[in-house]
Design a protein that fits this description.
This protein has 286 residues and is mainly alpha-helical. The chain has helices at 2-93, 101-117, 122-267, 274-282. Residues 9-74, 145-179, 208-249 form a coiled coil.
């Protein structure tokens, strides 16, 4: 029986060793898959982070573009106002030789003084009155012209500044539009790439779970085989103990029978040998 149990232990131990070796191989593969999966997940997180960063930069560039477009539009309205004033002045003075208001006022004063101080014929007086009327019309036009000229003079001071601003705002809008496009393209690249990386990570995770399942199943078998070996070893030791105890018991019984026979011999007055005395002592009869 002992030999049979030992053979069974050896057989299971060999199978256990093979399983442990197989489990070690799968465990290494499992670790490699886990490492690759984690690397892909880290890469995915990094790509998403960069995508978000470029989205923020794009949105910021778009906001700046809106601001400079508004400034450019406001600047354009001011420029149009100045050009409108220049056009009105041009139209008002087109094909006209307009004297200054002060000169016209002097002429009016001279004629009025003449009317007041000189004796004139009725025709001459009417002629001078008509002249005053015409001069007053010219005076009105002159004052309009001077007002327009004054307005244009003040506007011209800002014209160069506005033109320069217009160029700068337009340039800034173009630069920011290019930046926005650049950040947008980067954002799309990072997000699209992250999707591909995520698919790879998902495949690796699936393989990782399958491999983990194989490893877990192998270790379940290993634990089962180890339990069998341990059980067989316990039974084997128990069986050996029982055999040993049985042999001791049989030996004691045999020794007791011999001791009783020798004791009868001693009672009958027979001389005992040294060996027989030892048997009596071992049997507890002396």
């Amino acid at each position: 029986m002992g030999s049979s149990v030992d053979d069974e232990i050896i057989k299971i131990s060999l199978e256990l060793k093979a399983l442990e070796s197989e489990a070690e191989v799968h465990k290494k593969e499992f670790s490699i898959l886990k490492q690759k999966r984690d690397e892909k997940n880290a890469q995915f997180s990094d790509l998403i982070k960069k995508g978000k960063e470029n989205k923020e930069l794009r949105d910021k560039a778009n906001e700046e573009t809106k601001k400079y477009k508004a400034l450019r539009e406001e600047n354009g309205i001011k420029l149009k106002s100045i050009y409108d004033s220049l056009n009105r002045l041009k139209e008002a003075t087109m094909n006209k030789d307009i004297a200054s208001s002060s000169e016209i006022e002097k002429k009016i004063d001279t004629i009025e003084w003449k009317l007041e101080t000189e004796v004139l014929s009725i025709d001459k007086e009417r002629q001078l009155v008509d002249m005053i009327k015409n001069l007053k019309i010219d005076l009105k036009e002159s004052k309009i012209h001077e007002e327009l000229s004054k307005e244009v003079r003040f506007s011209k001071k800002d014209l160069d500044v506005l033109k320069k601003n217009s160029e700068e705002y337009h340039k800034k809008v173009l630069e920011l539009s290019d930046e926005s496009t650049k950040y947008h393209e980067r954002m799309i690249y990072y997000f699209n790439t992250s999707e591909d990386v995520k698919k790879e990570a998902d495949i690796l995770h699936k393989n990782y779970l399958e491999k983990k399942k194989q490893v877990d199943e192998l270790y379940d078998k290993i634990r089962e085989f180890r339990a069998k070996v341990k059980g067989l070893e316990i039974n084997s030791r128990k069986s050996e103990k029982q055999i040993k105890e049985k042999k001791i018991k049989e030996k004691k019984l045999e020794l007791s029978k011999k001791s009783e026979g020798i004791l009868e011999k001693f009672k009958n007055g027979e001389k005992l040998t040294l060996e027989e005395l030892k048997i009596l002592q071992a049997g507890g009869n002396i």
